């Protein structure tokens, strides 16, 4: 029973780390999959296979290396010099995502709950401090709460879509995009998400003593990610092409389901913002502690305070410039992960 519980915790943490706010909003699925029509079912299957294989490999490598942070893994993949450079670049991108997620938490409080933006920032920081002070096990616990809510919410969306006249077009839609663009999308999506998820997956892989827990947790988590991708694609396809104009496509569907669904969606969005925030902040703390040898609490306060200050200014412009470059680096990182056979 204990082993089974650990597998579920690993799987939910994997799913919660990958399925961030961009996923919950529907924008990521729309851009990487749904816009390409019926063939997206096949590209989602491909992406799922990569999430299963690479997710397990990533955690098992971290387990065997006894990696303190993702920097140890990158040095094992690329060597000390290049690995150090990639880790520093990853740290900048993770900090950018952290500030954007914090700003997103403030926006949810302001636009949806009608509190002030600053209240949203401070509540998110306070909750994050409590969780991060307790380490990787607390992060896993948070995901064990958030992910089931997300799964329930996804089931409601699928049931709603099932009864729509347009529910069957997810398999028949066509696209004018090139074959190269369509089949590049799942590789970019998987590479980018795994490269950022290493902030949590590496320390989790190192912390779990039982390799079989990581193996089955990675398998279950990867399958779960694939099912969530497929469900979101199914729901969004039934609303195409009109839904493509919305910044939060899934939110447009939710407005048709009543107040209870809107509240559940609000919890999902904030939960996914929060899990992404604590995942990236935790990865930053581990790498900074490894480099500076300062006490973890000092580093945690520094990271949270820095993200708060930068969230006042905005990091979106810089992040939009870094994202494409990090996407290319992520693909190289994924290829190197494929070639290394230390864990599987």
TrEMBL record:
Keywords associated with the record: Membrane, Transmembrane, Transmembrane helix
Chain ranges passing through the membrane: 7-24, 36-61, 82-103, 115-132, 139-162, 182-201, 213-236, 263-286, 298-315, 321-339
Keyword Acyltransferase annotated: no
Full protein name: Membrane protein YkvI
Superkingdom per UniProt: Bacteria
């Amino acid at each position: 029973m204990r082993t089974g519980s650990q597998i579920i915790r690993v799987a939910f943490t994997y799913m919660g780390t990958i399925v961030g706010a961009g996923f919950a909003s529907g924008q990521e699925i729309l851009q990487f999959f749904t816009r390409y029509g019926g063939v997206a079912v096949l590209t989602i299957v491909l992406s799922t296979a990569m999430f299963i294989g690479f997710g397990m490999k990533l955690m098992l490598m971290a387990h065997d290396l006894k990696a303190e942070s993702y920097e140890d893994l990158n040095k094992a993949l690329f060597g000390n010099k290049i690995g150090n450079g990639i880790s520093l670049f990853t740290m900048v991108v993770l900090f950018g995502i952290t500030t954007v997620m914090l700003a997103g938490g403030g926006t949810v409080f302001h636009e949806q709950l009608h509190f002030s933006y600053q209240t949203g920032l401070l509540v998110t920081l306070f909750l994050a401090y409590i969780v991060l002070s307790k380490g990787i096990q607390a992060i896993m616990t948070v995901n064990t709460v958030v992910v089931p809510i997300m799964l329930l919410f996804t089931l409601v969306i699928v049931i709603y879509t099932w009864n729509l006249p347009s529910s069957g077009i997810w398999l028949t839609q066509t696209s004018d995009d090139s074959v190269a663009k369509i089949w590049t999308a799942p590789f970019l999506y998987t590479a980018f998400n795994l490269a950022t998820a290493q902030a949590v997956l590496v320390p989790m892989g190192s912390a779990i003593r039982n390799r079989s827990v990581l193996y089955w947790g990675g398998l279950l988590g990867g399958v779960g990610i694939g099912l969530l991708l497929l469900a979101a694609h199914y729901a969004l396809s039934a609303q195409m092409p009109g839904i493509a104009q919305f910044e939060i496509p899934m939110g447009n569907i939710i407005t048709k389901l009543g107040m209870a669904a809107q509240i559940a969606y609000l919890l999902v969005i904030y939960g996914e913002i929060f899990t992404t925030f604590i995942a990236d902040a935790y990865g930053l703390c581990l790498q900074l502690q490894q480099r500076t040898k300062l006490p973890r609490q000092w580093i945690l306060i520094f990271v949270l305070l820095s993200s708060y200050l930068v969230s006042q200014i905005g990091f979106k412009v810089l992040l939009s410039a870094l994202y494409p470059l990090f996407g290319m680096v992520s693909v190289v990182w994924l290829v190197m992960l494929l070639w290394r056979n230390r864990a599987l």
